[in-house]
Amino acid sequence: MMRLLATLLIGLMVLGQMAQAQNGPLRIEITDGVIEPLPYAVPDFVAETSGAAELASNLARVVAEDLNGTGLFREIPAKAHISQITNFASPVQFADWKAINAQALVSGAVSVSGNDLEVKFRVYDVFAGQELGNGLRFKGTTEGWRRMGHKVADAVYSRITGEGGYFDSRVVFVSESGPKNDRRKRLAIMDYDGANLQYLTDSSAIVLAPRFSPTGDKVLYTSYETGFPRVFVLDVGSVERRVLQDQAGTMSFAPRFSPDGKSVLMSITQNGNTDIHTMPVNGRQTKRLTSSPSIDTAPSISPDGQQIVFESDRSGNQQLYVMPAGGGEPKRISFGQGRYGTPVWSPRGDLIAFTKQNKGRFHIGVMRTDGSEERLLTASFLDEGPSWAPNGRVIMFTRETQGSDGTAALYSVDVSGRNLKKVKVQGGASDPAWSPLQ
Amino acid sequence: MHIGHYISGAAHAGVIGWALWGGAFRDEPPPFEVSGVSIVTTEQFEAALAAERAPQPETDVTAPQAPTQADDVPSLTSQTDDAPALETPDSAEAPEPDATPTPPEEVPAPSQLTDVAPTLEPPSEEMAVLIPRDTTRPMVRPADRVAPEPVAPPEPDTVVDDVVKETTTPDDSVSETVAEPEEATAPEAATTEIVTEAKEQVALAPKASIRPVLRPASRPKPPAETTTDTPSSSSSSTDAAVAEALAETPAAPSGPPLSQGEKDSMRVSVQKCWVVDVGGQSANVTVTVGFSLDRDGKVKGPVTLLSSDGGDSKAVDTAFQSARRAILRCQKGGYKLPIEKYDHWREIEITFNPEKMRLK
Questions:
Q1: Which of B201, B257, B275 is closest, CB to CB, to A22?
Q2: Are A251 and A230 in contact (CB under 8 A)?
Q3: Helices and strands: H and E segment counts in chain B
Q4: Could you give the 3-state DSSP secondary structure of residue A79?
Q5: Edge-to-edge, what's the strand order for the sheet holding A273-280?
Q6: Residue limits of the TolB N-terminal domain (chain A) (predicted)?
Q7: Residue B346 with chain A: CB contacts under 8 Å
Q8: A170-434 CATH fold
Q9: What pLDDT, in 10s, does the model give residues B264-304?
Q10: Which fold has domain B267-358?
C-alpha cells in the first residue's frame, strides 16, 4: 500500500514538471485585429527625360487618388516625407519611411520621347525591407497617361491586397438632365472615376439599364424609341446600334450578357405575362426559361454560367430566386422582410448584390448565393441598381434624393459597407454598369 | 322719606302749571301753504303728452341743389379693346401633354378595414432587456479605424481666444529650466465594428456588456538564472568557438513558463498592429508564422510562414504579409517580455485567425 502511494506521488510530481516545462516555441493565437487604411507613400515619380516632370507628378497623383479612393489605403503627405527619391535605381532608405510609419512605398519613373510615354514602378514592403514583386514597366502614348496611371495603381493594389484592381475600367450609365417631370436620358460612358465622359446616344428616346459585354466593347440597353421598350445592342467603338428583339406584340427589357458574351438574357412581356428568355447575340430565336403567370425579370447569370438569379413576385411579393442556366425549377433565396429586386451576381461568384425595399427605405445589400448572411450596406430614400466592380470588391449604384427637385447620382460602397461615397459625374446619373478590367 | 314726596309733588305741580298757562292748549291753528289743482280727463292728459313729444320743425337747414348732368357723366368712347393676339404653336415644338396623374390608391371602405394587431418580435434569448430595441440612441462617431478596443475621439483642438491675455514673464530667480513633458499624440479614434449606413438607424446599445479583463495574478518572481560558466581565458580559440556555438544553440527551456498574463501582453502587442482587410480574400485565410527574438525582444532573422488554412496562394501571401507587418511594426524597441524567461520566448509561433473579424 505504501509502495503504491509513493508511486502515485512520484508520478504526479513528474507530470507536474512536464506540465510546467514548455516544449518548443511560445505559441499564441490572435483573433482580433484592426480595420484601418494602410498608410503608404507615393512620392512624385522621377522624371528621367526633360519635359516629363509634369507627367511624372500627375501620374503619381492618379495612382494616389486611385488607392486613396478604395478606403483601404491612407497616403502619407509629401511634406511628411524624410527621404526624397531622385533616382529610381537608388536603394530605398527604409528607416526614413519606417520613421513616418509608411507600411508600403511606391516609387516610379517616367520618360517621354516624342509622343511615347514610358512608366516604370516598384512597390516596397517598408517594414519587411523588401520589394513586393518585381518592377514593372508600361509603354504607351502621352494622350493615354491617365490610363497608364490607372494601370500602375491596379498593379500596386494587386500586390498589396492580393486581388485584382478595378481602376483601369469604365462605367456606362444613363445621363439625366432636366426637371424631374421632363427628364432627358441618354447613354454615357466614363472612366470609373468620372473622367473622360462621352455620350453614346442622344436624348430623343428614353433609355434604361445599360449592361457591358464581358469584353467591354458592346453595351446592351433598353430603349423606348419605337414607342415600346426594346432591347438594343450598341458597339462602343462605332456607336452603331441595332435592335436585338423586335417580335411584334412583345416588349423586351432588363437585358444582360452571358459570361461568354454569346447569348443574352432578357425579360419579354407577351400577352400580359413577363418571363425570362435567352437568345444568341447574333440570332433571332428566343428561348423561354421561366413560365409562371408572375412577373419574372432582372436576370443575372453566375460567372461560371451555371445559374441565374432573378426577381419574381410569384410568392405574392417581390423576392429573389435562383434557377439553372438552362431553365428549371427556381429556388427562392430571399426570406427577409420587405421586397428584393435587381439581383446581380458578383464577379467572384460568392455573393449576390440586390436592392431591398423595407419600411419606406431602400437599401443596397449583399447575401451569399444561397441567401444566407444577408448584409445591408446602405439606406436612403431611394437606392437601387447595384453593379459590381470587376474585382467584386466595390458596388456602384443609383441614389435619388427626395422631392420634386430630387436628382439621381451614382454612389459606390465597399462590399464591407465602408467607404460609401459619391462618384464624380457631371449632371444627373443613374443605372451604372461597370465594365470589365480593360 | 318725606323729602322724596316733596320733590315729586313740586315737579308734578310745575309741569301741570306749564301746560295750563304756558299755551299748550291754544285755539289758533298754525299757518300752511295752499296750491290750486285742476282735474283733467285721460284723453286730455294724452293729448298734452303728445304735444310735448312732437318734433319742432327746423327752419334754418338749406335744401340741397340737384346735380347737373354735365358734370358727372363720363365721356364714353365707341371703340372696343383689341383682343389679345394668340400665337399659333409650332407643331414641331408642341409641348407634350401633362402626364396623366396617377390615380391615388383606393382607400378601402371602413367595412373592409380589419384591425391587425402589430406583431411583436420576441426578444432574443441574449437580450433580456425591457427597453425597446429601436430606442433612439446617440449616433456613433464614424471612424476609419475598427479595433478591439474602442478609442474615444480626441479633444477638440485649441482655438485662439478673442481675449488677449498678457504673457507671463519668466521668473529670473529660477535658474534651472524645467523640461516640459512631451505630449503624446492622441490615439486615432476607433470603433469596435463596422457601422454601415444601413446600421446607423438601428439601436446602438451593446448587446452584451464587456467584461473587464482580469488582472493576472501576481506570481512570485522565479529565482534568477544561474550564469553559465564562461570558458577560461587560457582555453584555445577552438574551444571558445565550440562554446559560443553551444551557447547559440537553443537549449531546452527550463523553469516556469510564461504566465497567461505575459502571453496576453505579447498577444495584445501584436494584434494592435494586425490590419485585417475584412472585405478581401485574405480574410478567409488563417496563417501561422514563426520568428525568433533576441534578448531585447527584437525580431531576429526572418519571419517565416509555417502553415496556412483557406484561400488561394495569393490570399495566403497577402495574409502572411499582413501578419509579418504586424510583428515587425509593433516590435519598436522590442517586445516587453520577462528576460528571466527568455528561453521560453526565444522562439515564437503566432497564429493569425481572422474568423471573428469577418463577422464584424
A1: B257
A2: yes
A3: 8, 5
A4: helix
A5: A250-257, A263-270, A273-280, A287-288
A6: 26-132
A7: 25
A8: Neuraminidase (2.120.10)
A9: 999 999 999 999 999 898 999 999 999 999 999 999 999 99
A10: 3.30.1150
